């Protein structure tokens, strides 16, 4: 209590300061050990006036007398801030007081200053000091708490340390957890055992199969409905082929050798079967044995019509798809590429005339029964009519990757003429020729010239070797025949010859067959 009173007295204004204790010098405290000298730069005078210690102070703490005599540490506030936040000019009160004209001070009969002499917290001139800890020294210290004693199973069950209600609740919870675990185990065991039972049935799922536009599957879905199987029956015999619907009126384009037996024998029948199983009779509209093409018509309302493309835009290596009924297997789709273009192929077995076609060669699998079906490109457009295959050995050989199709550009012209008139007229040169070649060239050698024909009128002689017709080179007799059919009857064509070793060009006006 003496130290607190002394400190309080030192903080009260107007009271004498306590006498310095023994060993103090002028109240400055015991002697201090001076620090080692440091090389300190010079301090700016303006900065020292603002942030330096007041004159006469050598430490961070000063006596109350020194603090009361020390000049202010901060410079005067600007006039605008002083006017806004400063004390009124008429009064010098350190604390705000209730409004009124009276200005009592400490000790006056004023509720604001009541007891201010004994309470340094109410004295605005009181100095800063550290007070005692906010702990009552007379209060007994709290005993440290340690870990409680642990109960054994015997004490829990029989020692009456736990309430019976808590034990019953614990037992109920344990039984419930055990029951739930048993049910889960039973259902799991039943589900696992069902996989090993003979009568187990697995749930079906939807396969995540991607069929992007332009894929073979996408093309097949669009083309197969426009392809028909053709069944020809002649007496007790029959044959199968394929066809493609080219017009909404029911016109179907196919090969002549597919329907020729029914055209040449009375009482024969032709039936077509669509991909959805629809079966209907068909009638022959027209045939062209020289190109092995024919058009039949079916009595179906609004059939699916195939998209017709162009064969002139094909290039070797383009992807193609063959659709038809090989060996009677309707809706068969095979894939390949264009192996060659403008390949002259002589067909056999198509009637009295062995046709020669300027074919598209492909390695797509083509077998007997594919004849008359479409060859489509990567967009699903028809670019050819599958017609022939090459095989090794005699008999009904299978596909060895050498299939031939009539270009759709040629087939379209023939089909349109057959639909209009039922017959097709072709240009004729009027010669019989055979393929010849030597070490440097090849061509078609004229064997005989028909009297009154285009060749005779143009001055072509027997023994001449035809090497060009128009702008097309001729490498053999088959190529000469397909080259002539590229022109209309009455067209004037330049024919390049080799006569007795000398080149010669003659002009020929083609006639009609």
TrEMBL record:
Biased composition (Basic and acidic residues): 33-42
Keywords from the UniProt entry: Hydrolase, Membrane, Protease, Transmembrane, Transmembrane helix
SUPFAM superfamilies tied to this protein: PDZ domain-like, Trypsin-like serine proteases
UniProt biased composition (Low complexity): 59-75, 98-111, 127-146
Membrane is among the record's keywords: yes
Region entry Disordered, spans: 1-75, 89-146
Lineage top rank: taxon: Bacteria
Ranges of residues in domain PDZ: 418-501
Keyword NAD found: no
Cross-referenced InterPro entries: Chloro_Bact_Ser_Proteases, PDZ, PDZ_sf, Peptidase_S1_PA, Peptidase_S1_PA_chymotrypsin, Peptidase_S1C
Gene Ontology MF: a single term: serine-type endopeptidase activity
Pfam families in alphabetical order: PDZ_2, Trypsin_2
Family stated for the protein in its record: Belongs to the peptidase S1C family.
Protein known as: Trypsin-like peptidase domain-containing protein
Species, as recorded: Pseudonocardia petroleophila
Lineage: Bacteria, Bacillati, Actinomycetota, Actinomycetes, Pseudonocardiales
């Amino acid at each position: 209590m003496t130290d607190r009173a002394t400190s309080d007295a030192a903080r009260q204004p107007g009271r004498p300061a306590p006498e310095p204790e023994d060993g103090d010098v002028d109240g400055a405290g015991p002697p201090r050990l001076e620090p080692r000298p440091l090389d300190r730069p010079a301090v700016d005078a303006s900065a020292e006036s603002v942030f330096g210690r007041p004159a006469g102070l050598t430490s961070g703490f000063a006596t109350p007398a020194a603090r009361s005599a020390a000049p202010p540490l901060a410079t005067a506030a600007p006039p605008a801030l002083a006017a806004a936040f400063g004390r009124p000019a008429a009064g010098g009160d350190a604390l705000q007081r209730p409004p009124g004209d009276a200005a009592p001070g400490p000790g006056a009969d004023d509720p604001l200053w009541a007891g201010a002499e004994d309470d340094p917290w109410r004295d605005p001139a009181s100095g800063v000091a550290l007070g005692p800890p906010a702990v009552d020294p007379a209060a007994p210290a709290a005993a440290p708490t340690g870990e409680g004693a642990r109960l054994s199973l015997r004490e829990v069950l029989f020692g009456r340390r736990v309430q019976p209600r808590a034990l019953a609740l614990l037992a109920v919870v344990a039984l419930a957890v055990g029951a739930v675990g048993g049910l889960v185990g039973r259902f799991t065991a039943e589900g696992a055992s069902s996989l090993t039972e003979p009568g187990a049935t697995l749930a079906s799922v939807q396969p995540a199969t991607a069929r992007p536009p332009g894929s073979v599957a996408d093309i097949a879905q669009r083309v197969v409905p426009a392809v028909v199987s053709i069944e020809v029956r002649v007496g007790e015999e029959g044959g199968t082929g394929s066809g493609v619907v080219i017009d909404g009126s029911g016109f179907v384009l196919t090969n002549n050798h597919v329907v020729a037996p029914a055209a040449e024998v009375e009482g024969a029948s032709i039936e077509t079967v669509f991909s959805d199983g629809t079966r209907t009779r068909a009638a022959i509209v027209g045939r062209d044995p020289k190109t092995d093409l024919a058009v039949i018509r079916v009595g179906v309302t609004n059939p699916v019509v195939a998209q017709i493309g162009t064969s002139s835009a094909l290039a070797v290596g383009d992807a193609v798809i063959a659709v038809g009924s090989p060996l009677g297997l309707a809706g068969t789709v095979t894939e390949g590429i264009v192996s060659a273009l403008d390949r002259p192929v002589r067909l056999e077995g198509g009637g009295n005339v062995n046709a020669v076609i300027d074919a598209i060669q492909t390695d797509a699998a083509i077998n007997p029964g594919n004849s008359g079906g479409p060859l489509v490109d990567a967009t699903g457009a028809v670019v050819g009519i599958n017609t022939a295959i090459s095989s090794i050995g005699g008999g009904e050989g299978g596909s060895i990757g050498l299939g031939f199709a009539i270009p759709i550009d040629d087939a379209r012209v023939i089909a349109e003429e057959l639909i209009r008139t039922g017959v097709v007229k072709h240009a004729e040169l009027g010669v019989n020729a055979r393929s010849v070649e030597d070490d440097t060239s090849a061509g078609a050698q004229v064997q005989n010239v028909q009297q009154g024909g285009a060749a005779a009128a143009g001055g072509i002689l027997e023994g001449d070797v035809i090497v060009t017709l128009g702008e097309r080179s001729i490498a053999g007799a088959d190529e000469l025949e397909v080259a002539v059919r590229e022109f209309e009857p009455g067209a004037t064509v330049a024919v390049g010859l080799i006569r007795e070793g000398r080149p010669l060009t003659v002009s020929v006006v083609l006639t009609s067959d």
